[in-house]
Write a structure and sequence with these properties.
Order of helices and strands: HHHHHHHHHHH
Structural class: mainly alpha
Number of domains: 2
Strand content: under 5%
Shape: globular
Radius of gyration: 17 Å
Helix content: 40-55%
CATH superfamily of the largest domain: Cytochrome c-like domain
CATH topology of the largest domain: Cytochrome Bc1 Complex, Chain D, domain 2
Number of strands: 0
Number of helices: 11
């Protein structure tokens, strides 16, 4: 818990003390390059199949970071970055500018709204907003914001309206270590403290958070 709190303090101090560089992706160029992405993520960035993430409206900086790390996962044989059998292969032929253009394009689109089942609102809201101090679980809102919109500068993703199935899969990967491209291992540290029930509740709660 102290490690996570210290990381957040240092990060926020660094961001507030420096000016962010402008993201130089070209959305129009990205649109022209996005046809292949539509097969999984949909023509409007809202994946019709729930195992794939919605990337419409996602922060450009975050999408760019993930694309770079998917490519790194392939070139490093999985020892670095983020390895995925589909996305790492898709990212391989992309240039740095291609990644920036695609990220800029999808950031201009609107993520489709989701829903939160009534039976998870109370527990999900408590865990998301306050965490669980006794188990050393910090508030999700501390990084992802009260509405789940994330932060572009810190590359914390928008997680509201995301497919619950995708959120669940990513939390499980952070927990078992098969995904470890999070800053300073923060998500891995947190996910290891989550039970299956916690992950199920949070995943379903985020679907309709706004």
């Amino acid at each position: 818990m102290k490690k996570i709190a210290l990381t957040l303090t240092v990060l926020l101090g660094t961001l507030s003390a420096s000016n962010a560089t402008a993201f130089d992706g070209d959305a129009e160029a990205g649109k022209a390059k996005s046809a292949t992405c539509a097969a999984c993520h949909g023509p409007d960035g809202n994946a019709p199949v729930n195992i794939y993430p919605k990337i419409a409206g996602q922060h450009a900086d975050y999408v760019y970071k993930q694309l770079k790390e998917f490519k790194l996962g392939m070139t490093s044989g999985g020892s670095e970055g983020r390895m995925d059998p589909v996305m790492s292969g898709m990212a391989m032929p992309l240039s740095d500018q291609d990644m920036k253009d695609l990220a800029a394009y999808f950031a201009t689109l609107n993520m489709s709204a989701g829903t939160t089942p009534e039976d998870v609102i109370e527990v999900g809201q408590k865990l998301y907003r306050a965490g669980d101090a006794e188990r050393g679980i910090p508030s999700c809102a501390a990084c992802h914001g009260p509405r789940g919109n994330g932060t572009s500068l810190a590359k914390f993703p928008k997680i509201s309206f995301q497919h619950p199935e995708y959120i669940k899969a990513q939390l499980e990967k952070f927990r078992d270590g098969s995904r470890n491209n999070d800053m300073n291992g923060m998500m891995g540290d947190i996910a290891k403290k989550l039970t299956d029930k916690d992950i199920e509740v949070l995943s379903r709660y985020l679907g309709g958070l706004h």
